[in-house]
Amino acid sequence: VISWTTMISGYAQNGYDNEALKLFWEMLQAGVKPSSNTIAGVLRACTDLKDLQQGKAIHAYVLRRVLESSVFVGSALVDMYAKCGSVSDALLVFDQIPQKNVVTWNSIIRGYTLRGLVADALKLFAQMQLKGMKPDAFTWSIMITGLAENGQVEEALEFFSQMQVEGIKPSIISWTALIAGYARNGQGNEALKLFNQMQLAGEKPNLVSIATVLPACASLAALEQGKQIHGYSIRNGFQSDVVAGSALVDMYAKCGSIKYACQVFDKMLEKNLVTWNSMITGYAIHGNGKGAISLFHDMVQEGIKPDSITFTGILSACSHSGLMDEGWQYFDIMSQEYGITPNLTHYACMVDILGRCGYLDEAWDFIENMPLEPN
RNA sequence: CACAUAAAAUUACG
Questions:
Q1: Is-contact A217 A251, C-beta < 8 A?
Q2: Global pTM value
Q3: What is the C-alpha separation between A340 and A334, in angstroms, rounded?
Q4: Using the CB atom, is residue A346 less than 7 Å from strand B?
């Protein structure tokens, strides 16, 4: 049992979720009875895959075998249902767990915040304390994230302060959650301030912190701050990371330095869709339509499939450099060749292209005939 | 240390 469980958990922890699932069913066929630890491990694989079907199958197995009830399995089930989009099932399981621990509570609260149900999350947060369960750093971070994603940054800050009053030291994750909240809500200055405070508090920024503050620099066009963070990334070996690299490309482009953006982009060993989109959007910002289109061809050549954001970049680039024909062409191929249905932003880009090229009547016609409700 | 929970990059015009 231990060998199987070790293998299954190892797979699940390292992103080999399908292998974990396969191994679990093989284990059953081999006649080995899984322990609750095995179940918890394989449930994690379902959660990562967002595979509700598999998750339910394993839940059913647990019920059939009347496994000794483990809070680990219970929490893993709550988490699985919550992350696979079924809060109601998560709550059903949650209510039936006799000995809830802090992980159980955290899992259900996260389920609610994931769906934007912050008011319900707040209720549960109060409820757990009424039941004598003390929130841990995870709980506080979940609440901070949930509030910030809901636009309630001030409340998120209050939670951040309150956790310290309650004697819980904010982890780097609590800090990053709050910083992300400010960055996303257009308060780049606050985000940068907190980033500095975090370091004064003794937390060393990691990859995620870097990826979180760079957009704050970008939104402020704070090139000097961005460069410092770039330097920090190099010193700490983050520069080869695809997420940090993409964030740097974006930051430099938005700070007005397309040159540095290209330099970082060219040096990156691994590029993904976001990397390409960042560079294409960078060219768009700089009014280099031809450059954006040329990058588009490169990315397709490299086997990266463009998405709707790629086309937003291309169309915006066309609008900023007066490329009306190309604009039409990409607007057409995005659905015809790539199966991407244009959204409101794409339509807005087309109106912008037509308008800037002086085709106001055509722009007006275009709005009147578009299949979406113009905003 | 065979087990479950928290943070991250790209998205029009202005």
A1: yes
A2: 0.94
A3: 6
A4: no
Contact predicate A247/A207, CB 8 Å:
no
Q: What share of chain A is helix, strand, coil (3-state, %, to 5)?
A: 75, 0, 25
| Cα separation, A344 vs A357, whole angstroms | 20
Token pair, residue A92, equals 């059903």
> Could you read off the pLDDT of A127-171 as tens digits, one per residue?
999 999 999 999 999 999 999 999 999 999 999 999 999 999 999
Residue whose C-alpha is closest to residue A233's, from A252, A207, A257: A207
Strand B proximal to A71 Cβ, under 7 A: yes
CB A252 within 8 Å of CB A246: no
d(CA A17, CA A42): 8
A334-337, long-range: CB within 8 Å, 24+ apart, which pairs? Answer: A334/A306, A334/A308
Give the span between the Cα atoms of A209 and A242, in whole angstroms: 14
Cβ contact A128 with chain B strand, < 7 A? no
Closest nucleotide over all strands to A247 (CA to C1'): B9
Whose tokens are 């760079």? That residue is: A214
Task: Round to whole Å and give the CA distance between A70 and A248.
Answer: 45
Strands, DSSP E only, in A262-334? none
The spacing between the Cα labelled CA in A316 and the C1' in B12, in angstroms, equals 7
The per-type count for chain A, helices as H runs and strands as E runs, is 22, 0
Q: Which two tokens stand for residue A167?
A: 């004697």
The gap between A266 CA and B14 C1' (Å) is 32
Q: What is the mean pLDDT of chain A?
A: 95
Nucleic acid strand B within 7 Å of A233 CB: no
Number of C-beta neighbours around residue A215 at 10 A: 18
Q: Are A277 and A243 in contact (CB under 8 A)?
A: no
Which two three-digit tokens encode residue A61? 């197995």
**d(Cα A334, Cα A312) in Å, to the nearest integer?**
10
| ipTM field | 0.90
Interhelix angle A102-114/A137-149, rounded to 10 degrees, is: 10
Q: Mention every residue, 6+ apart, whose C-beta is less than 8 A from residue A42.
A: A8, A12, A20, A21, A24, A34, A58
